[in-house]
Amino acid sequence: MPDKGWQRKFEDPIPLPDGRELVKLRDAAEYITSLPKKEAPLPELQTAIEVLMLCSRSGPTMLARIAVMKALNGQIVQVLNTEGKILIGANGSSRGINDRSRIGRWFSR
Predict the structure, then answer these.
(1) Shared-domain flag, residues 83 and 33
(2) What share of the chain is helix, strand, coil (3-state, %, to 5)?
């Protein structure tokens, strides 16, 4: 019998910086609610909580995984450029600066 409600498992576990993994919806909900209260009003965390509640009733757990990953990783974006290098930064630049000329070239095909 498949898991129901908060016991539903993510298709792929969510890795945490300390090496642990969030395997079930309940794990993610408990982890998010245990974060410092100063982070609670962040829109990404609020969205993750709402999506977790929605997915605990029905819907694909992938939506909850995406929302939780976005909330935990903040503005970190990974972009694969045409040279095969992964760029990491808030704006997709490996230097952490606004390098629109190169990014625009990659996606302007």
Answers:
(1) no
(2) 45, 15, 35
Calpha distance 92→95 (Å, rounded)? 9
Distances in Å between the alpha carbon of 73 and those of 8, 44, 65, 93, 104? Answer: 22, 10, 12, 16, 24
Distance CA 100, CA 93 (A): 9
Domain count, the chain: 2
- Of 92, 90, 52, 87, give the one whose Cα is nearest residue 69: 52
End-to-end CA distance of the chain: 48
pTM of the model: 0.64
Residues 23 and 59 occupy one common structural domain: yes
Q: Would you say residue 37 has pLDDT above 70?
A: yes
Looking at the fold, whether 39 and 54 belong to one and the same domain comes out as yes
Same domain, 103 and 50: no
